[in-house]
Design brief:
about 140 residues; mainly beta; Jelly Rolls; two-stranded antiparallel sheet; 1 helix; about 45% strand; globular; binds manganese (II) ion
Length: about 140
């Protein structure tokens, strides 16, 4: 068993190719022999990922703040601490903070189960798409 104390964790800034606005990423762990990684990601108000897809899917669990998530072709939905979202393999989506509030989530992401292929990144989320009035997660 590998122990990973909080004091050993290093925060790295999210790359501008993948994010709009300031984002901090802390790797929690990667499961050896798999394409599964767990990260804590904290988005500043207004910050969000670019559109992207995870070849093996992703679980997002919001641990703090208020955020937004959208699957391609669907509405923008509001996220709050305690909410969990599952993106299917290859499902195009984005996630981020609300315009005036930060959001922190744990992300458990799986690469391609066969090849380990990583997240596939696409264009940034436009301000127009980002600022659409969000619907509740429940609807
Ligand atoms: Mn994602």
């Amino acid at each position: 068993m590998e122990m990973r104390p909080a004091s050993s964790r290093v925060s790295s800034a999210g790359p501008a190719d993948w994010f709009t606005g300031p984002v901090w990423m802390d790797e929690l762990a990667a499961l050896p022999g798999t394409a599964v990684r767990a990260l804590r990601v904290t988005f500043s108000p207004g910050a969000r990922t670019a559109w992207h897809a995870h070849p093996g899917g992703q679980v997002l669990h919001v641990v703090d703040g208020v955020g937004r998530v959208q699957s391609a072709g669907g509405p923008v939905r509001q996220l709050r601490a305690g909410d969990t979202v599952v993106a299917g393999p290859g499902e195009q989506h984005w996630h981020g903070a609300a315009p005036d509030q930060l959001m922190s989530h744990v992300a458990i992401s799986a690469g391609d189960p066969a090849t380990g292929g990583p997240t596939v990144w696409a264009e940034h989320v436009s301000d127009e798409d980002y600022r659409a009035e969000p619907e509740p997660l429940e609807s």
